Structures are given as C-alpha cells and as structure tokens.
Amino acid sequence: MAPRTSPEISGMGHSMKRKEDPRFLRGQGRYVDDIVLPGMVFMDIVRSPFAHAKITKIDTARALKVPGVLAVITGETLAKFNLHWMPTLMSDTQMVLPTEKVMYQAQEVAAVIATDRYAAADGVEAVEVSYDPLPVLVDPFKALEPGAPVLRTDKKGKTDNRIFHWEAGDRQGTDAELAGSEVVVKQDLYIPRIHVSSIETCGCVADFDRAQGKLTVYMTTQAPHAIRTVFALVAGHVGLSEERIRIVSPDIGGGFGGKVPVYPGYVIAVAASVVLGKPVKWIEDRMENLQADSFARDYHISAELGAKRDGTMTALRIKTIADHGYTDAAANPSKFPAGLFSICTGSYQLGHAFAEVDGVYTNKPPGGIAYRCSFRVTEAVHAIERLTDILAHELGMDPAELRFKNFIPPESFPYHSALGWDYDSGNYAAALRKAMDRIGYAELRKEQAEKRARGELMGIGISSFTEIVGAGPSKQFDILGIKMFDSCEIRVHPTGKAIARFGTKSQGQGHETTYAQIVAEELGIPAAHVQVEEGDTDTAPYGLGTYASRSTPVAGAAGAVAARKIRDKARKIAAHLLEVAEEDLVWEPGKFSVKGAPQRSKTIQDIALAAYTNHPQGMEAGLEAVSYYDPPNLTFPFGSYICVVDLDRGTGEVKIRRFVAVDDCGNIINPMIVDGQIHGGLTMGMAPALLEEISYDEDGNIQGGSFMDYLLPTAMETPSWETDKTVTPSPHHPLGAKGVGESATVGAPPAIANAVVDALWHLGVRNIDIPITPEKVWRILHEKGVAE
Amino acid sequence: MASHQIRVTVNGTPHEAEVDSRLLLVHFLRDVLRLTGTHVGCDTTHCGACTVLLDGAPVKSCTVLAVQANGRELMTVEGLERDGKLHPIQEGFWEKHGLQCGYCTPGMMMTSYALLQRTRSPTELEIRQAISGNLCRCTGYVNIVKAVQYAAEKLREE
C-alpha cells in the first residue's frame, strides 16, 4: 500500500525513524531506577527459601542495628492497615506480606528500608526468619488428586486445589463427531513455564507527600490508569483517594506482559512511603524478577483432532490443566479465566470443537498471562498447529496441503468459529503461498528426501496461525469491571502543532512515533510536530494500558476517531474562512480546498490559528477532541511461518537454517517498526521453543531462577529472520489496522517444533515438548540408534 | 568498611570521589556521577546492559569495583556524541531501528564501538560474536547487526 501522505507529513505507511530514539541513543531515557527524589530511601525484600512453610518468627532486631537501616516492614505492620492481602485481577487474593505462611520459594516475607541499596541489602541478610516447612505441591495433577493437601487454607470452605473450571463449545456434538471421525490424532503437549525477562526488571519510586496527602508512584507498569484505580480501591480506607494518586510510567525497559500485574513490592513501597513520609525506591534484581514475578504458559494440554481420510478436519477437543501457582493472579479480562484459549480452532474450518481448562493451585509464584501471549493465544496456536502437523504426517499428506484444504476461505469472513469468535478478515492461503514461494518449499522437500536417504536429519515446519488481539468490546471485556476501551486526547495548538495523549503505555513498541503518524494521517499535521505522551495518569486520558497487542486496535482507533472529530470542526472553520458551504470542501491530508477551485484552500495550520484567533460565532474556540473507543470486535491478524532445521546427529543441537515469516496485520502504520516487532517476537518464539524453561524440583526449589541457566538467546543463537507481508485490512477498524506485536511469538514456536518433529517423524517420533534442548534430541537420537 | 579516594576520567572529565570498597562501578556511574545511561539488567554478568569502556576495552561495569577504576579512563554512552553530533554507531542504531525499549542500547553501542575500534569491516558473524555478551529482548538482533554494519561503513568513509 503506497502511503497517502508526503514523507514530510509521514502518515501511515512511512518507515519514519523513531521519535523516541534520540534520548535513548544518548543515555537520556528516563527509566524508574534513573529517578532520584530528595530524601529518597531504598527498599529491599527478604524472601522465603521455602516453597511452603509456616512462619514461626521474624526477628528484626539485628537488622535494625545495621548501619543505614531505617525500618523493617512485616506482614504484621501491613495487617494494622489491612494491607497484608490484596485482590488479584481474577478476583482471587494475594499476600502482600505473609502473617502466617509462605506459599512459594522467593515469596516476599519482609521489607527493609535503608538509606541506600547496599545498606538495604545488608539489612535483608540480618533479618532472621524461622520456618516450619509444610508439604509442597508442585505437580498440578497431584494437586488435583483426592486427599492432596489443600493449599489455600485461608479461603473458607475451600476443600481442594482447583481454582476454576472453564469450558467453551459443544461437548456432546464434538464427542459424537470425534467418535465418528475416520481418523483421530491425539497428543499430550506440555507448554512449559517461562518468563519474559525484560532486560529492565520491575521497580518503583513511591512518593507520599504528607502535606498534600498525595501519592505519586513512578513505576514499571504497562497499565498505569488501572493501577491507579486498584490502589484507590485497595488503599482507599487509609485515605488514598483516586484524585490524589498519580501513577507515572516513565520509559520502560521492555514489558512483554511482565509489567501488567501489581506485585507486592510496589504495594510495600507505597506503604513504606506513607509510613515514613519519604520517597521509597524499590528495584528488584534479576533473580527476584525470574523467581517471583509473573510467569507465562504452564499449560498441560491434551488435544484430539478428528478428520476424514482425505484430510478434511472434523472436530477438535482439548482438555487442559493450567498451573497458576498459589493464587490466580493471571492478568486476564475478568470473564476469561483461560484467556482467549478458545481461539484454538485456529485458521481452520472446524465445525465442532470443545475446549476445557482447569486452573490449579501449586506452591509456585502466580502469573500465567505474559510473554506476548495475547491472553493464552500462544498455547491455543501451539496446540492446533502441532496437531495439524501430526494429522498431516499420520495421513501421509504434506502439512502445507492439509492446511490449504482446511483454511477458512477468504470469502467466508467475517467467519463465526465453532468456539464463538467472529474473525474479521483473512486470506490464509495467500500468506502460506507467499511463505512457500519465498523459501522454495518444493525444492526443500526434495532436498529433505535426498538427505533422509543419506541419513541426514533435516526438517521443515509450518505454522499458519490466527491471532486475536485488541481486547476488547465492552460487552465481554473488562478488567476488574472497567471496560476495555482505550482513549486518545488531541489538542492542536494555535501554530498548527499538536499534543496527543493516549491511555496506553509503550514499552518500546514505538507509540510516540506511530501514534503521531496516525494523527498525521488524519489531520495532515507532520508527525514530527505531533507530541505523543503516555503513562502519566494526571495528564493522559483513562485507558487500559498496553498488552495483548491492543494498542493499535483500540487506542490507535481512538486516535483516528479523535482526529476525525477535529477534522469535522476544522471543516466548519475552513468553510467559515473560505465563505463556502461545508459540502463544497474537499479534504486531502493537511488541507481543505474548494471543490473545482483548488487554489482556494486553507491548510490545517491556517485553520488551527483561526480556531484561536477568528473562530466562527456560535462555535467554541480551540481545536481539540477526545475519544474513548469501545471496539466493536477484536482484530484477527494472521501469518504463515516456515522454518527449516538441520539436526546435529552428534550433539542433538537444532540449527535453524532459515525462517521465513509472512505476517498480515492489515494496513501498516510504520513498516520499519512492524518488522522490528516481528524480529523481536520471532526471537521470543524461538527462545521457548529451544532454550527457555523454568521448572521446580519436588521440594519446590526453582530451576532456572537466574541468567546462569535461564537461557535468553544471544545474537549467536538467533537466526537472521526473513520477513514478508500480505495486507488484509480489518474491516471494522477505522484505519484497517490490526495488532501485530505478539503474532510472531504466538506463531513461531509450533513452526520450530513442527520442523524438528518433521526431521524425526520417519524414526517414529511424534512429539518433543518444548524447549527442544540438545539433550532431549540427543537422547532420542541415541534411542533410535541414529546418533553420530 | 574501608573507603577509598579514587580518581577516574569519565568521557574526558576527571572525577574524584570517596567510595566504599564494595561499590560496583555501575553504581558509581549511575548513583554517584548520575550517568544513568548505563543500565543494570541482571545479577550474574550475563546481560551486558552495563557495558562501558575501561581504558578502551569493553567491561561489564556490574563486575568491576569502582576502586578498580582508580586512575583509569572510562567511556560511557554519554561520551559517544561529540560536539552535538551523534557518533556513527548512534546514527546507525537510529537509521536501522536497532533499538526498541532502549534499555540494552547503551551497552550494545559501547560493545559495538569497541568492535569497530578493532576492525572497520566486521562480518555478520564477527558482529554477532562481538555482541554475544549483550542481551536484547526487543530487537531479535537483526537490526542491531545492520546498525553496526551501517556504522562500520560510515567510519570507513570518514
């Protein structure tokens, strides 16, 4: 799509260089730990060495004698203010600091406040805590067994460890269809617990101003407004009233969903600041971040896919056990305890489907929704794409051919899925064909056959995924009751420049640039002269924040709608200035001209000045507008990824030779930024497929709790991604744009897993659970007698 | 705890300070000198977000004590720009979209700077090896490689 505006205006479609870069390139970004306030003190946290234990004593005497230590805060301190527990987004309860027992290793037990971070760390070492260990539950299946110890003894009447049972679809119809299917493939898949590990960890500076009774919190949050409301709801009883709470989310060093939840550290820092009357800084270290902050995935999936012998898919049935840790703090919309897992019918016409998820408590930290998952879409796509490949192999069909046979055809959109979603638009075959042409699919299959004859192991994996992003319509979507709209407020200055504020919050996705491009597209004001701000709840309009790729679908739409309101008023002013009727005016970005007399025109700059100096009688002065956008539907971007792997028969290493990613996110605001999102997303798809995992031993000790063995990919492990696009606009979005930030992380893992299994299928290998480590492959190679 | 008087030159400016023996160089730069471009991303010396140049060589400043820098020359991200003009590395990262959240960027650029001091024509593999001590969670490294190549070309032209 050719851009409609000039490079000078840089509306949609321009690869405009980022407006945020000049400060980051100079080391002048302002992240939370860069903030220093007068009188600021530091907080550090005492954490539990046990996964499950009764606290018998917390002795703070020695810590209070450490030079620089000012105070030690315990659950008892917070209990006096009824702040030792807090509600989660899923209406469960979470400890801020415990008064009786700990529920996971690394849980917050007490907080030390000191004059600097070194003294605070000394203080943590000096706090003496006595524990009585309790039986530990780490396996969610065991946690569900009758007679398993009940973890949540704080919940009255709770007799087991089940958190919720959720289901979608037609159980009987699906059972019947599967029973009558000519072929049924069944596979258990474990999607392991992983962690976003944004390079900046979580932290805050809480600053309670006693004189004004106002709390300001600078914090690493993806949803500052929601946080403000949560703080008001949780701490209203101690005088924290919403108009006197200001949350500022400054520059954020990556979020990836890990900075959506409210962590105990934030709440303790706020309490400490209120108690001490000083600004309190809390910055967690990497191990704390990995061990205690929101995890992602941890789904034990059992899936069955039925088909006719010719490959026509008939029915899908999925049963899942979801490990949520000790409390359900998953950052889901309130009516979706399993997120949008019901997108699991994927890109295919599936007449019958049924999905159920049981959430389970274990002695692990809470979380589940993070790491570019779009509310469990990663899990859903992994299941359907793995099953599709297994079905193809079982039938002896090419995996691409099977996909073409079952794709929802372009003319069927909007498509109503068996599990209730109305897909907005798509042309799946076009994306897959493009990926196949680009990678040379037919030749690769030939090469694979030749290599196999020589005993070499090469695999080709496809993933043709459909995403669901842009939560969401108010009828279904809310966070703690607040509907999932988003917002934009644009104010045009007398000299024709503008400031625009949004209810979302970038963590590197480039909103300062792309939102300016949306305003430029709609008003013709050069994007360079549109100042975009987010993250300060005193100034930005209320929004639900940035996660689940919702910024473009929701706030982006609000930006376009607000700009169009301004354009409507601008048209009235132009008509007044040119002394013609509104209908006689023609708009092109930046200018109204008289129909048939293009030399008679007024630029948006002329109009802006007039709005302040010569506005029509009966009209308000000024030129500004606000929009709170309630999306009519979600957006459904899609893509087809193809991965080629070579397996090292000596070491079991999986080498990604090529990876072609064709994405379709509708109309593109900034191609350069979209590509960057996809590169990063693919890397965050490869990482859990091949490297990253957090597991627990029987005693609940975390394995993978530091960068020593939680393996983030470096430039050496990361392939050189090849990206391409098709463009199928969203019909309901004002700009035809769809979200894209998470597509690649959703789509990539099954392409990689499919490629590895494809390389080994002829040896009788049906599945390898991710991460597909060299050790797992090496063992298989030895078992099958093909190791070198 | 013993404290020490140190003298260091940072980005050409001499500084004197009294520091505890255990103060990490990264905290000296960030908390004492308030040069907050250098970041902390881990606690095990893996991420490289704290990379600075110590007598011209890239070091992870979370794994150097401030006292060890006594009498030596440091260069941080704040020293890349000269006379209001971005260094070709900074320009390359901007042109090629080699950064997103910006948190790894200062360390990544300092490592790249050191690489381009050693060689003006690095191969893609050499670039990837050079930055393998610097983790990035946003870019997938593709555009960082392009940014370094851009800078290398710019420097060859100079």
Give a verbal description of the structure.
The complex is a heterodimer of chains A (788) and B (158). Chain A is α+β, with helices and mostly antiparallel strands. In chain A, 28% of the residues lie in helices and 25% in strands. In chain A, the strands form eleven sheets. Chain A has a seven-stranded mixed β-sheet, sandwiched between helices. In chain A, strands 9-18-17-16-10 form a five-stranded mixed β-sheet, sandwiched between helices. In chain A, a hairpin with a 5-residue loop joins β25 (486-492) and β26. The longest helix of chain A has 28 residues, at 551-578. With 158 residues, chain B is of the alpha+beta class. Chain B folds into two domains: 3-79, Roll (Ubiquitin-like (UB roll)), CATH 3.10.20; 88-157, DNA polymerase, domain 1, CATH 1.10.150. Chain B has five helices and five strands, in the order ββαβββαααα. Chain B has helices at residues 25-32, 88-95, 105-118, 124-130, 142-157; strands spanning 3-10, 13-20, 51-54, 57-60, 73-75. A five-stranded mixed β-sheet of chain B has the order 2-1-5-3-4, covered by helices on one side. In chain B, α2 packs across α5 and α3 (105-118) packs across α5. The longest helix of chain B is centred in the C-terminal third of the chain and has 16 residues, at 142-157. Chain B is globular and about 45 Å long. Chains A and B meet through α1 and α17 of A and α1, α2, α3, α4 and α5 of B.
Summarize the structure in short.
Chain A has 788 residues and is of the alpha+beta class. In chain A, 28% of the residues lie in helices and 25% in strands. The mean pLDDT of chain A is 97.
